[in-house]
Amino acid sequence: MKFVTFAGISTLLFTSLCYLCSAQTKPEKTERPADYSELDKAPAKYRAKANPMVKDKNAVAAGGVLFEEHCAECHGETALGTKKAPSLRVPQVQSAPPGSLFWILTNGIVRKGMPVWSKLPEPQRWQLISFIQSLGPAEAVENRAAAKP
User: Fold this and answer.
1) In 3-state terms, what secondary structure has residue 108?
2) Against a cut of 0.85, is the pTM above it?
3) What is the mean predicted confidence (pLDDT) over 55-76?
């Protein structure tokens, strides 16, 4: 009888110990999906702004130079994102109103690590937007790569 009681108590203690150990184990850190909801926070007066550089044939090239200097370190050379910053090739960014992107560039998202670029002259911010939106969605890049012989 004592043996059965001892075995039962031992099993209970072992089970409790296993439970406590597993409860203290920290879950693996998983990356959160990028949140593009900041684009929706742009005031209506900014969302309505059109890119004045849209017809400037040099705007995309100039924006590419600016992107390399100021943005590629965090967003990646091809704007597909890194651990530091999200992709700019997603449909949410590519189809966003240019004014919303301008507002984000101007004000940044400091709590998420996006610096404020208001000191960058306004025409240069519009050139950056021209470049970013000229890239197209990431799927288009993948489809072009797959189509090459």
Assistant:
1) coil
2) no
3) 96
